[in-house]
Amino acid sequence: MEDFLDAFVEILDDTDRSILLAETIYKDLDEWDSMTALMLIAMFDEKYEKKITGNDIKEATTLNDLYLIALK
Amino acid sequence: MGFLKVDNVKISGIVSAVPEKVVKNMDLDLFANQQEAEKFISITGIEEKRHANIDVCTSDLCFHAAEELISKLNWNKEEIDILILVTQTPDYVVPNTSIILQDRLGLPKTCICFDVPLGCSGYVYGLSIISQFLQNGSFNKGILLVGDTLSKQCSSLDKSTYPLFGDAGCATALEFNRGSEMRFNLWSDGSGYNSIIVPDGGYRNPLAEKSLLQEADSSGNVRSKINTYMNGTEVFSFGISEVPKEIKKFMTHFDINVADVDFAIFHQANKFMNEMIRKKIGLSKEQVPYSLHKFGNTSSATIPLTISTLDDSVKNRNILMCGFGVGLSIGIVQTQIEEDFINVLLEV
């Protein structure tokens, strides 16, 4: 999970790594927007070689939800 | 497998016409603040685009491009056997705009004319259709027109479309030429039909009063049912997975090495997405030119418009082109550009 959070913070510009936790509702982060969503899809593709869809992002609430998709 | 080889047809020239009006994304009120606009530009790469005036249609841009192309090539209009217009923004629902252009351009009544309502992949599909008409020499010359005026179809209150799309119309001349080759890979996936869609105004959802209602979505983007809707994340996911896969299959099928490609011209959708595609195929930055910073996403016109920005550097070059998007649809073609190629970028 820590590795996933390290990768997640890389797609953000101004968010401190220390505030990212498994239960963080990532869409509530100030920086979260449609452009960040594209970077998330790219991160899944490059780091996990997984295809994450717009619907996956829509349904995932916390960073842990995203992490579980990465583990699938 | 959508692989296809067409012999004895060459691309003789391209003229791309863009409107004079420049719309800079940094100047749009649509973004909440400067930081948001900067982030958008840094990811998509789109700094500005061109917008046609209210009374200028796609066909007008294509008309000017075609006139210039025919004149530069010194073609006799009587010799033009086929005219195809690829557009999603025709003059009328009925009849086809290409037939109106036959008369307007002064082409003979024997000229075959029809429209193809494809978008981002449409240029390659247009090339595949016209080249097959020309390949056996019964017909000699054809003009492919492509373009859209999507600034009119997108809601100016929708961040997911309005800053991305620009207007352009391009004319491409093709002719019978013994020895020339064009290789294609054409791909479709209708399961993603609603990823980019104008929901109302066709016969599934006929135009009604409620079609015109402007409503905000969960992201705060406001649009009506006759505006373009785009699910950017779905399209991005499709772009970075299916497009490199199909290009690789194409290159394997036709035994094309990455080093053989002088220029790979991709549909100009989003620089971040295109760069991922480029890296997956193993192409260098020098092999993949961009025009989206200046013209945005002009739908079926992005590929010829990008070629037009390259001036004479495309002559005697091996070019791979790939259009992808609405449908969902992918079109890939590879061909050689000759020494006498005409290449013009026009402001109208």
UniProtKB/TrEMBL annotation, chain A:
Top-level taxon of the source organism: Bacteria
Residues of the Carrier domain: 5-66
Listed SUPFAM superfamilies: ACP-like (SSF47336)
Protein name stated in the entry: Phosphopantetheine attachment site
Automatic annotation (TrEMBL), chain B:
Signal peptide residue numbers: none
Pfam family, one: ACP_syn_III_C
Domain Beta-ketoacyl-[acyl-carrier-protein] synthase III C-terminal: 255-333
Keyword Transferase: yes
GO biological process, one term: secondary metabolite biosynthetic process
Domain of life: Bacteria
Residues in Beta-ketoacyl-[acyl-carrier-protein] synthase III N-terminal domain copies: 114-190
Keywords from the named record: Acyltransferase, Transferase
InterPro entries per UniProt: ACP_syn_III_C, ACP_syn_III_N, Thiolase-like
GO MF entry, a single one: 3-oxoacyl-[acyl-carrier-protein] synthase activity
Official protein name in the record: 3-oxoacyl-[acyl-carrier-protein] synthase-3
Source lineage: Bacteria, Pseudomonadati, Bacteroidota, Flavobacteriia, Flavobacteriales
